[in-house]
Every structure is written in C-alpha cells, then in structure tokens.
Amino acid sequence: MKKIIFFFLFSLFINAQENNNSDCTSIYLIRHAEKDRSKKDNNNPHLNLSGQKRALKWKSFFKNINFEKFYSTNYYRTLETIKPISHGNEIILYNPSTIDYKKFIIDNLGKTVLIVGHSNTIPTFANEVLGENIYEQIEDSNNSNLYVINFCNESKKISSIYFVE
Questions:
Q1: What's this model's pTM, rounded to 2 decimal places?
Q2: Domain that holds residue 19
Q3: How far apart, in whole angstroms, are the C-alpha atoms of residue 62 and residue 113?
Q4: Domain count within the chain
Q5: Residue 9 backbone phi and psi in degrees, to 5
C-alpha cells in the first residue's frame, strides 16, 4: 500500500511540476471525512473522532501542494475536513445544486484548488468539470477517495485513488 501511495504522490509531484505555468489548472476533489452518525435525524453532523483524524491525514497528505483556492459546501463535516488543509485561508462556500461549472472553470484557470463535498456531489462535480460521465456516486461508507483533474493548455489528465485507512 505504501508503494501505491508513494507512486501516486510522485506522479502528483511530476504533474504539478509539468503544470507549473499559468495555462494549467489543477483541481483536487475529496469527500468530507467520517461524520457523527449517532443521531439519525441530524442533517448537519460534525466529524466524529475518525473523521477528525482523517482530516489531519488529508492535511499531511496535501502539505506540499500550494492550493490557491479552497471550496466547501456549507456543512460542519465539509468545513471541518477542509479547515486544517486551508491553514486559515478563505474557504469559498458553494452550493452543488446551483454552481455554474463553466464559470467555476473560468474563475480558476491557472490555479490549484481543493474542493470538499459529499458522496453524491464530488463525482458529479468531477464529471461536470470533465464534461464526461466517468465517476459514479461514492459509497456512503467511503470517505477516502481523491480525484485529481489537471488541465494544461488543451489537454487534460485525470487521476483517482482510494485510501483504505
């Protein structure tokens, strides 16, 4: 598993180096970390202890990536996932139901951005940005997918990885 993670990190580093010009855009998308499921009727739960630990793991994982923008839905679990990674930088709130994906792409050309969402919104977000239906909804028990989309000039590269931890 460590070899897979190392290979993936190495490929991200190489892609980041290749994309180090203003014509390149890198979009990282993750689902929020594990939420507190103790109250079934709570539509806006906080992260549970495992989720708090995962948020810190994401912070460590992304430590060498210089994000210029951070996007999150307006829920405790997404905000608590992104805050450690954002290091106090502004977090832009978005609504998955009303976001204009074409405007999002234009507004973020040449930038490196992180988006945190939900099991049903992150795959849709990635698909809309790509203009293709590649990703399916994430299993509800899965809080560890990472999707990376790189646009450089006219080409695009996509990567996805699943962490078991």
A1: 0.85
A2: 2-162
A3: 11
A4: 1
A5: -60, -40
